[in-house]
Design goal:
Length: 115
């Protein structure tokens, strides 16, 4: 048989099974659909816990951790993460202490506006 014949037979079988299913009143369920929200809810707690564990173990992000100690608390906040907000929370911007840390300027207290 060629490919077209298999396709035709497959269509006929699908039509036959659909007709049988439509005519039956009591059809045994082979699976139960789960809503997207149920899956997300089920996955949220272990995901947040894993994130929290990694957050605690990491030696990075000290400034951000001082603002957000618990991941769960941070996720409850609705923050508008503007560039200025991100700079403050991460300590990564053209702020004097950052520029000094990476030896871009000589003095973290320098009043000059040079970068």
């Amino acid at each position: 048989m060629d490919e077209g014949t298999y396709g035709h037979q497959g269509n006929e079988m699908a039509d036959q099974l659909a007709t049988e299913a439509a005519n039956k009143k009591n059809i045994e369920e082979f699976y139960t659909k789960i809503t997207k929200s149920a899956v997300l809810c089920e996955l949220k707690e272990p995901s947040v816990q894993q994130w929290q564990n990694e957050w605690k173990r990491s030696s990075k992000g000290a400034i951000t951790k001082s603002f957000f100690l618990k991941i769960e608390d941070r996720l409850k906040l609705r923050l508008n993460a503007t560039p200025k907000f991100t700079a403050i929370v991460t300590g990564h911007d053209n702020i004097k202490s950052y520029l000094y840390k990476y030896k871009i300027i000589d003095n973290p207290m320098c009043p000059c506006k040079k970068r």
